[in-house]
Input
Amino acid sequence: MENTESYLSDRDIMAILRAADEIIARGGRSLLAKILKGSKDKKVLELGLDQCPVYGYFRHETLKNILKKVDWMIDYDFLDIEYVGKLPMIVFTERGWEIHKDQYTDELLQEWEEWLEKGIQNPDMTYLKERDRGMIVLLLEKIGETRDKRFIPYLKEWEKVDYKKVKAKIRQVIQMIESDEPLDHEAIHVRQMAIKEALQGEEPGDLRLKCWDCGKRFTFSIDEQRFFKQKGYSYPKRCKSCRGRRKNWV
Ligand SMILES: [Zn+2]
Output
């Protein structure tokens, strides 16, 4: 599938996901748009969101336009809205996380490279504890793929502070680097293709749902889907006329 119909480029999608990472389950659409705008809004500054690498990514655009992009991300299933109490908060969809996990682990690996350049010897590795397991595994894979022996001391520091399962994985990676095992190019390729595929989102369309009462199919349009998502409602179980009839009973 081609991405030519899309309104946002891969780079834009990744930037919005990067900004979203700062506020997952604690901020909504407008806060996300403000980060991307580079807003000096009080809340943005209080939360230190001006430190985010994509702060001001869309600085030349209006907030309204940026919000449209955020909503596109929700329509195309890169982001979702989840209610925390009464507040609609931004969360990753599985697909959005798949893409973001890849760029985020690159960012972490880059940080390790900067430590090497600066000659940092004993970095505090506790920041990697209790993180998403899939992300940690991917990070370790990428560290292993560098086959860079200078990372071994960092890996050993990390091994000291993390849990059993992660320790085992870290030791595997150390061994892989020490023995200079040949790279598994096939696995790397498969992983990269999966990210590409995730970026080429499927265009959202109307859904045909089956009514629980009359059993007929009814259309649940894109606009209705968007409205339901923003309100935090689950998808309707009944067609409009059955819904109307139920209301009249009460
Ligand atoms: Zn019905």
Q: What stands out?
A: The first strand starts at residue 79 and ends at 84. The pocket of zinc ion is lined by residues 211, 213-214, 216, 238-239, 241-242 (CB under 6 Å).
